[in-house]
């Protein structure tokens, strides 16, 4: 029952609810503060234990999670500042009380005015109002009691939910801490003691987990054996060795004659000659045959002087075709000099090289090349230095062709050479000094070429020289005095060159008119006004001037 104050009107329902709220609020706030501080202290203690457990490396990784205390504080909308108490919030609460009391007084005055108006209008029904006042008070009491319950329940709702969440969260933290303690300090016998300064231990390297071997599935059926590819048997040549061994042996032998680089260069005369000996030659010469070198050298000469463009004696296209071979032999109508072994067959045919056109071999039984005579068959290309290895070569005639290049210096190594006739070609350069060392040389015929340079004084060291023809070249300088030492000299032609000076007197004394053997001596002695003029009187010295 509500007490009625003296001198005042009875309190309304709003005033009763506001009064109840003001009485209940301090108590709830106090309880929340006490609860929050207890939770804070508990969480701080637990966080210390969690930190120690996390520092220990034996603690599982999934338990190394330090729970921030702010998670608990912020559950239910409460922050740290709100749980610890903020002065600003206290001030707001005080101002709220004063405003609510003012509102209560104003509402009581309006209630009085309304009651006076109702009492003036209904004065005739005083009895009914008095009788109904008791019922109205009971209704107001019921409403006030219901409003109190509602206000309590409304104030109770958020606090109870928050407390429940905090309780649940604290319970979860306790369970996690228990698990951490059990995992971290299970091996301590004397009880669980908290380390003050945990020292991190080195982590052991991870041990690789061996993978189980994958079983290889076995074939259900046995595989069908594949027969090996039949290798054709190596057929030995007539030399008793395989073709590969024969080629290697021949290559090793001819490498003593030619430069190995030339032998390995595609389309070089040396490589073409090697391929002919190994692959095309119908004679199938063996590596130990004594005539291998000279057959190879003559093959090099053929390819080096453009043998396929010769006017006669060229190799037939098909060496295995008898008709082509016979036709090529019929066109080869040149013969060598000085022996019954002079050949007249086409070059590179399947006969002895001594039977090739222009080749003459000696009759001593060795079959060595004695003479190489290729006159007026349009020989071109260059002269190969390999001819130096024809040790018994005495005659080398390559006349009236298209031969270019220079005279190889290696020709001075052909010590038995007696005739060197290279006239009417396109040979250039100087006469090699080594040529003047051929003491057995009888004929040096180099006229009608493009030779340059001076006539070397060493020419006087050729005691057997009888024919020296140098006309129609581009040689110059003065004629050497050593020409007078050539006692067997019969012909000396030096006209149509660029020589100057006077003919040596020692040469004039070799004239046949003075008892010597010099029957022909020609020079550029016709016009004394010419810059290129050789002083030589006729018939006292020169036989003819140009």
Summarize the structure.
The protein has 546 residues and is α/β, with parallel strands linked by helices. The chain is 37% helix and 9% strand.
Total helical segments: 11
* Helix-strand category: alpha/beta
Anisotropy-based shape: elongated
Distance between the termini: 172 Å
Uncertain regions spanning at least 5 consecutive residues:
1-8, 58-81, 97-136, 148-158, 187-199
From the alpha carbons, calculate the radius of gyration and give it in angstroms: 67 Å
**Largest sheet composition:** 9 strands, mixed
Indicate the proportion of strand residues.
5-15%
Mean pLDDT across all amino acids = 76
Tally of strands: 14
List the strand order in the largest sheet.
1-2-3-4-6-8-10-12-14
What share of residues is helical? 25-40%
Structure description:
It is a single chain. This protein starts with 12 loop residues before the first helix and ends with a strand. The model is unreliable at 1-8, 58-81, 97-136, 148-158 and 187-199 (pLDDT under 50). It has 546 residues and is α/β, with parallel strands linked by helices. The chain is 37% helix and 9% strand. A nine-stranded mixed sheet has the order 1-2-3-4-6-8-10-12-14, with no helix packed on it. A three-stranded parallel sheet has the order 9-11-13, with no helix packed on it. The protein has helices at residues 13-55, 69-73, 80-84, 87-121, 126-184, 243-254, 260-264, 269-280, 292-304, 322-331, 505-508, and strands spanning 359-361, 369-375, 395-399, 419-421, 428-429, 443-445, 450-451, 467-469, 476-478, 491-493, 498-502, 520-523, 534-535, 544-545. The protein has eleven helices and 14 strands.
